[in-house]
Amino acid sequence: MRAKRRSGWLIPVLLACVPACIPACGAEWVAYVGTYTSGASKGIYAYRFDDSTGKLTALGLAAETSNPSFLAVSPNRRFLYAANENSTGSISAFSIDGAKGTLKLLNTVSSRGAGPCHVALDKTGKWLFAANYNTGSVAAFPVLDDGRLSEASAFVQHSGSSVNPQRQAGPHAHSVNISPDNRFVLVADLGLDQILTYRIDAAKGLTPAEPPFTKVAPGSGPRHFVFGTDGRFAYAINEMLATMTAFQYDAAQGSLKEIQTLSTLAAGFTGANSAAEIAVHPSGKFLYASNRGNDSIAIFSIDAKTGTLSAAGYASTGGKTPRNFAIDSTGKFLLAANQDSGNIVVFRIGQNTGGLTPAGVEVKVASPVSIVYTRAR
What we know:
globular
């Protein structure tokens, strides 16, 4: 696993009073938080989320599992999957108890590489894809009807390097991203400065596409990737240069054409920084990006006609090292997970401006690094 900064005082999130039944308490959503577990944290934690106020109520430890650094929920909301980011990488499958918010382990399979850091399900829920950061590979896993994972049915080892000898001596697959029409998987590889394209194959899970990749500027280090709401444009956040690259997307070929690159940082910032997470607002009007070092969320307006971005503001995350954040499905709130300060801070989203205002909600959890939502059942 990659070295990560830790804070010795972080505490696990466990409240003395835990609601026994989510629906009885009137909750509509459950938020699951993945964590790094080398310190006080033990795995995946659950919260009841009130989408009218942004309030988070802790439900405690949902599942004990090692370094669940990225989470994904199945389209039918019955299952949750976690990338166990260890030197012997694995992917864990869980069933979701919507009444209690707890998770039941179904099975665990090898990720086929070291340091798996991202997972995604296709829109049918029949395939799960994983990116292995340390060894720079991608794998596809059939999802069985009961939510369990089969062993990998497809595996691709990336090869090559880029200009930074410390960070890019070899491949580092960092995210797997499903195209809007469910035909392609686009993989951001930090070590290669490439977004690689694969076809979703009904038999194997994935096969290389043509053209096989799109390059970004040398030394950028593409990390995460997202499509705009209408599918015509896509965006990559580049960790190493703290930049955002906008692309025009060709849905027929699964290919990208760069149209713009701009900084995720406000003018004048000179400290060390690495960019991390990216998300498009459900309205399609705004894009958000997190900065670790500057410890902020950058806000961009999206031009609906051209897909280009304009800086629209910045907000402190209220903590240290925002590795991940999530926007709730209503588009009213953004939850920022600050890894090194061990807190999650809730922000209201301005529907006209995209601006972020603290909602007065903050919870403590050790090393939070991934947040996903699902409806309580």
